[in-house]
């Protein structure tokens, strides 16, 4: 049975996405060079499942080998347009990178130097570097070069601890910004070069932020999903809200892009596709 739709959005369940013994834990949307999209969903059984949201079809799955399940995920494009995902599996599990076209491993991120990495986001920088935002026990929050398997910069901020949700914003003109979500109803912006806070967005009373993501590839847009089913999007240049969406309270928004919201309901994914505008 299909989930009920919401005003302006059609709800559908990705094919092959439900399982009695596995739950979706995280998801990301990557936009391809031809304008197509891939939704990647990480599961508690260690699988990474892929769907084409524009054609409502399954693209396959990857067995990541994360024995405790995929508990964090980031996606990006390589300089030659190959979509990749970086997955993490918690304690004792090195983060791993995957070619989503061929569904094959690319490499182990920080192989041999880190046994625990929480992957938060990834982005392709103007110079072609695939940057991964993550934190581990030794380096706190940092940006890694995927190809070089090395820490590029450590983000020294006034945050008491690394965030559990964040987005990496990489505009074409250069400069890196990290957006972090917090349970005080705030999204904070940090300059990666200086570690200084450069901005802040407020949600609303009672809207604790549990998911932050970059819904587009312009490097200037950040979205936050809050308790109560509210998703707010801001332009980091003008510091203004550009969109506010609401989803039913029984859905948990995991990620999205300008057209799709990927949600979880009782461990299964539900995609809300915009039908207006």
Automatic annotation (TrEMBL):
Highest taxon above the source species: Bacteria
SMART domains: WD40
WD repeats: 178-200
Pfam families: WD40
UniProt-listed InterPro entries: Quinoprotein_ADH-like_sf, WD40/YVTN_repeat-like_dom_sf, WD40_rpt
Region of interest (Disordered), residue spans: 1-20
Presence of the UniProt keyword Cell cycle in the record: no
UniProt KW keywords: WD repeat
UniProt protein name: WD40 repeat domain-containing protein
């Amino acid at each position: 049975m299909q989930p009920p739709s919401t005003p302006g959005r059609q709800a559908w369940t990705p094919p092959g996405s439900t399982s009695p013994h596995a739950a979706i834990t995280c998801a990301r949307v990557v936009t391809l060079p031809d304008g197509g999209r891939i939704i990647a969903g990480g599961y508690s059984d260690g699988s990474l499942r892929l769907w084409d949201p524009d054609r409502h079809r399954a693209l396959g799955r990857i067995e990541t080998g994360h024995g405790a399940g995929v508990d964090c995920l980031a996606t990006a494009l390589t300089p030659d347009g190959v979509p990749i995902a970086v997955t993490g599996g918690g304690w004792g599990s090195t983060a791993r990178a995957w070619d989503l076209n061929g569904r094959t491993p690319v490499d182990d991120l920080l192989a041999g130097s880190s046994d625990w990495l929480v992957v938060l986001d990834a982005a392709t920088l103007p110079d072609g570097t695939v940057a991964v935002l993550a934190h581990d026990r030794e380096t706190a929050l940092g940006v890694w070069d995927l190809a070089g398997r090395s820490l590029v910069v450590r983000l020294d901020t006034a945050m008491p601890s690394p965030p559990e949700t964040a987005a990496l914003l990489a505009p074409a003109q250069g400069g890196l910004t990290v957006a972090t979500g917090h349970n005080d109803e705030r999204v904070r912006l940090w300059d990666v070069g200086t570690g200084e806070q450069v901005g802040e967005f407020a949600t609303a009373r009672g809207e604790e932020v549990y998911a932050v993501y970059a819904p587009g590839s312009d490097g200037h847009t950040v979205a936050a999903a809050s308790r109560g089913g509210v998703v707010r999007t801001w332009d980091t240049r003008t510091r203004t809200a550009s969109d506010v969406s609401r989803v039913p309270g029984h859905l948990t928004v995991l990620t999205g892009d300008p057209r799709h919201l990927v949600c979880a309901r009782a461990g299964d994914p539900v995609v809300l596709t915009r039908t207006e505008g």
